[in-house]
Amino acid sequence: MPEQKRKLAAIMFTDIVGYTESMSIDEQAAIQAVRKKRSIIQPLIKEHSGVFVKEIGDGTLSYFGSAIDASACAVKLQAKTFDDEFLNIRIGIHVGDIVFDGEDVFGEGVNIASRLENISPAGGICVSKNVFDELENKKQFNGTSLGLQSLKGVGRLVEVFALNGDKLKEPDKSQYKATEVEKHTDDEVPSIAIIPFDNKGAQEDVFYAYGISADLISSVTSAGLIRVASLKDIEKLDYQNLESAEISRIVFIRYIANGTLWKMGDMFQLSIELYDTKEARVVWSDRWQENWDNLSSIKSNLSDGLLKALNAKPSYEENKEIVNPEAYEYYLRAEHKFQKRQTADDIELAMGLSQKAVEIDENFLEAKLQLAKIIYAKGNDENKALSLANTALEQAEKQDNQRAVGDILRFIGEWFIRRDLDQALEYFTRSLIVFEALGDKMGTGLALNSIGNVNWRNEQPKKALEYYERFQSIAEEIGDKWSESTALNNIALVYNGIGDSDGAIEYLERALLIKEELQDKAGSAKNLVNIGFQYFTKGDFNSALDYYNRGLAIDKSLGNRWRIAFDLRLKGYLLSDMGEYAESQASFEEALAIDESLDDKNGIMLATKGIGITHFYRSDYEKALDYLERSYALRKELGKKSWKLYHLIHLSLTQKYLDMDYDKKEIHNIIGDKTLDDKRYITNYTIYKLLEEKKYLQWAYKQVCKIANGLDYTVKESFLNVPLPKQIVEEWKKTNA
Q: Shortest CA distance to 647 belongs to which of 674, 677, 671, 613?
């Protein structure tokens, strides 16, 4: 497809008011009026360095190098025709892109200038805000605001001004109230849910509606101080069957934007509606058509309109780089396929589509970053993903596309986080600086969260906590509930890591409230189980069991089999620690059946180990040996280190009780491995039983006492009456009697 020539220009449309009626009354007089207008306007256009493009009946289209030249020409035209009753001319001027087609021009800028001319009074001039901004400090120009106007049929909101002058007709402002869009004026931060557009066309065109909606949400979110419900939040709702008020209540927003998209050949039929749930009124609605060539500008135009209606000025100028429409279509196809992926084949297809977008438009940075992310997700050529991201970063810096720079820096940081924490920190810090300079709250929050992750991995919990708390503060400020719950969970992770279970529970409970408010059942279940684990760690086993059961019940209702098996295994280990070995075994066996059906080898290993543990504590050592040996062999095959000592000690003690040899060298090597952190009181007590070294009994006793002393009296008594803690205390007292 040949590249179209584009140019930024001041476009002027004129026509004669009442011309059609004049033709029906006195055709000759009407034709004479057009000729006279032509004789006046063409020299004026030339005088002001403009280009006369064409006549359209009684109308004319021309363009100029500046808004000042176009406006001066328009004012002189009205002055020269002021006293002519047959030349009641109205004029519209807008600065925008024009696209050349031979001697003709067309494009969005032309359409807006035409609509401005339509709403101008006879003898008057209406201009858009970008024109008036250039005129405002010029003495020869004055104007009156007509407010934010919905220019029907172009899908745009434009702040309109009428120029004032001795020989200019001033408009009746009351006549513009019906089409004026009332901006958000309350003190509250504006909040909006952008519902994915409804695809009215063929099913294979659904990617247009999905991709444009996703891009629109991202664009509005990054604009500044505005609360935008995330796409994840919206997709969790049955929004097609919910009333606007219900959506507003669930995701805590005031405004709802929805629309339709219908691809018809080389045209798109679009509609948009912005609804204010607080005032129960439609703020803005429009229907219009876009040529396929304008595909890449649909999102930015909609974003511009929504932000104007919400009175939320973008914190930075969006990059105006023109994207090849064919490349943008491949990009949208890739995004839809990748986000909705079900299999490895879907990732492969998404990668091919994204690659095509990059090949068509070398300067399409969003497509390059998309391709890097897809390659990284595929996992078989991560160095290629990094190389592509670095190339995109160089281009973004040359184009001064700071939003792209920030996004790419954060992606590169994520690439390094599993390889080089210092490098990861450098890239995340650079992205933070970029997003802060842009005033992009969401970008800033995500960068802060990433820096927190680096500090956590670097075993610097205080620094991690500082960054997570800053992320949480921003998420709360802009009302992003999804990000706020992520921040709260990360803060809980830090408290858990420093041994403060109460602090972890507090933040997990706060995150749970948000998940429940968002009706995120899967997220609620995960938080319930995490809270249960904290109570398990504290020694409050009954509370832990309650939370585990609540989380498990939700996961079972959702049919998430992997999560069900995960929950059942955790419940099995809890019941084992409680001394409820029969129930523990039943839980592990239920998990094992699911793990085997999913071919989840790690799950199979953990469930099989759990069954072996329950047989061990019921003194059925033959069965314990069978399950523990099989699970330990699978552990070695998988290379899993987590809870390895706990596993091996129980296997070795089983072998000892059966008068079998066990690997003492491996035992001592693992006990001395500082990277293993699974030396709980149960593990130390089992080592004591195996090696008969009193220091391990002492450590187990101290651990039991520490847990017990952190519990309320009733819970403490319950914990100390659980079989193993009770046995440890009694044996310690006996050996020290």
A: 613
